Amino acid sequence: MKSGLLNIDDDKMLLQLMRDDCRTAFDTLYQKYWKLVLNTGYKRLKDLSKAEDVAQDVFTQLWLRRKDVVVKNVSAYLFTAVRNCTFTLLAKENRYIPINDLLLELKADRASADAQILLKEFMKAYEAMVDALPNQQKTIFKMRYHQELTTDEIAVQLQLSPKTVRNHLGRAITTLRASLMMAYILVFF
């Protein structure tokens, strides 16, 4: 046993102690999973400093949400948390532009009358592309980006698993991103 850590290997017990505000239980989980979280972040980001920031954020959120979070498998939970935190970091760094942001940017950049016509054409193309998605993808995409529901809210409403919702959403975004870039080029250039 390392100094200041509990000699408990059962994650469920550590989580229960953590829910009861036991900082030592948290420190034990932190020590046990730190390298896994850091390595997972590094594999995605290829930057040690950013991976350390992601790992720190993941564990900070675990502590802050200790009373509410339900964790059945700690390593799976942490893997998902790293993935989500990584996506958030990448979005902040503008490595990819969410579709809503692209549309807002187009609206802001195009104030002239000609540009408004082009924008209307682009928006028609966008709506046609959304409508051309397979039904499940289209429904999930509209719920996420038009109704601004979270993936968990969508999963509950459609009685699907959150993973299924994310998979459909990912496929829809991939399809639309490629199509929208082509439509943007054709309409505006």
Describe the 3D structure.
With 189 residues, the protein is mainly alpha-helical. It folds into two domains: 82 residues, Rna Polymerase Sigma Factor, Chain: A (Orthogonal Bundle), CATH 1.10.1740; 90 residues, Winged helix-like DNA-binding domain superfamily/Winged helix DNA-binding domain (Arc Repressor Mutant, subunit A, Orthogonal Bundle). Helix 3 packs across helix 4 and helix 7 packs across helix 9. It is elongated. The termini are far apart.
Question: What can be said about this structure in brief?
Answer:
This protein has 189 residues and is an all-alpha fold.
Characterize the overall form.
elongated
The CATH superfamily of the largest domain bears the name Winged helix-like DNA-binding domain superfamily/Winged helix DNA-binding domain
Number of helices: 9
* Beta-strand residue percentage: under 5%
Number of strands: 0
Measured as a percent range, the helix fraction is: over 70%
CATH fold call of the largest domain: Arc Repressor Mutant, subunit A
Features of the shown structure:
189 residues; mainly alpha; Rna Polymerase Sigma Factor, Chain: A; Arc Repressor Mutant, subunit A; 2 domains
Record the SSE blueprint.
Layout: H1 11-19, H2 23-45, H3 48-64, H4 74-92, H5 99-109, H6 113-132, H7 135-145, H8 151-158, H9 162-188
